[in-house]
Design brief:
Length: about 140
């Protein structure tokens, strides 16, 4: 079989074409699976164009609101950072994490920012602090028998 008789492979496609194919992928999981098919797909899956599609449209604003600066070298790394643990926003009153499967935002709300029924009634609620907590004050519902 001569070089001209060789069957074309995905590696023969221009990188832009491969990236366009990957942009039609619906989830980060699909992107990671596609990366195992060939070297060309693996290179394309690592592109910022693919991973930016999985980030929320307002990710620039989210990063700007973070208490500690987020350091990342690629959109793929940023996606993984945002989906591994909560980042703390707005002076520590709000946390945000991306759902690893869907990329949807999950919020962690500070109790002090909530309007809790009978929140000041110590028969039901107690405000305290747990050293391991990210929050300076926690609201604990008391169960009394």
């Amino acid at each position: 079989m001569t070089e001209s008789d060789k069957a074309p492979t995905i590696s023969d496609l221009p990188e832009g074409c491969v990236t366009d194919i990957l942009l039609s992928i619906t989830s980060p999981r699909d992107a990671c699976r596609a990366a195992s098919i060939s070297k060309a797909l693996n290179l394309a899956v690592d592109s910022d164009a693919v991973w930016e599609r999985f980030l929320p449209p307002d990710y620039h604003e989210i990063i700007a609101r973070e208490v500690s600066p987020v350091v990342f070298e690629s959109k793929k790394q940023l996606y993984h950072l945002l989906s591994e643990s909560y980042i703390i926003l707005d002076r520590g009153y709000l946390g945000l994490k991306l759902d690893r499967q869907s990329g949807r935002k999950c919020y962690l709300l500070g109790a002090m920012d909530l309007s809790i029924a009978w929140g000041n009634d110590t028969r039901y609620w107690e405000w305290g602090h747990i050293p391991e907590s990210r929050s300076s004050s926690l609201s604990m519902l008391g169960f009394f028998l």
